[in-house]
Amino acid sequence: MPNSFYSNSLGFTLIELLITISIMAILSAMVFPGFAGFADNQQVQQQTLNVVSDAEISKNKALAGAYSTGSTTKSAYWGIIFCSNSNNDEYTLTAFDDTGSPLTGISTSDTKLVKLQGGVSFNCGTTEKSWVFERLTGAPFLDEGDVKISKGTRARTILLEPSGAISIQ
Questions:
Q1: Could you tell me the pTM of the whole model?
Q2: If DSSP states are collapsed to H, E and C, what string results for 27-95?
Q3: Which residue, 50, 91, 102, 152, is most buried by CB atoms nearer than 10 A?
Q4: What pLDDT, in 10s, does the model give residues 3-17?
Q5: DSSP 135
């Protein structure tokens, strides 16, 4: 009588399981670096959108001639300071005077210090950069140009144009 136990077996052999697991491990190893790059790209994109949003808030405050708390006069200029105190992962929204210097003695409710998240940083080097918007036009008062945001090899550039338009490249 033939041994029917082995001929009707419905399981997998150890070799088949090892081959399947090996193939899955190889495919996972190929997909993981792409996923990590995707995650970095999404973090850079999100932080870039946050900076653009805050720049638009500063421009709108300048256009509206928003008061600074504790002051009876409107600030003609509002803007953002990038990489203050050599921190390449921070920026500050604040009011400025007519020389382009941040107003002193204003309430902390008029300033907003923002720290970039997820290991994303500005490419400022050791220099501080400011974007200051004019009250009547929303155009840059002193500086225009670009700010670069990056994480690893992923980067975005935010461009402030002479008209005051803000775009992402």
A1: 0.77
A2: HHHHHHHHHHHHHHHHHHHHHHHHHHHHHHHHHHHHHHCCECCCCCCECCEEEEEECHHHCCCEEEEEE
A3: 91
A4: 555 566 678 899 999
A5: T
Tokens of 87: 């921190």
Domain count, the chain: 1
CATH at 72:
3.55.40.10
- Residue 154 belongs to what domain range? 44-168
Instruction: Read off the pLDDT of residues 33-47 as tens digits, 9 standing for 90 and up.
Output: 777 788 889 999 999
> Is residue 32 a part of any domain in this protein?
no
Interatomic CA distance for residues 12 and 108, integer angstroms? 68
Write phi, then psi, for 138 (nearest 5 degrees): 75, 5
Examine residue 12 and state whether it is found in any structural domain, yes or no: no
R_g over Cα of the chain: 27
Asked whether residue 30 is assigned to any structural domain, the reply reads no
CA distance 71 to 74: 8
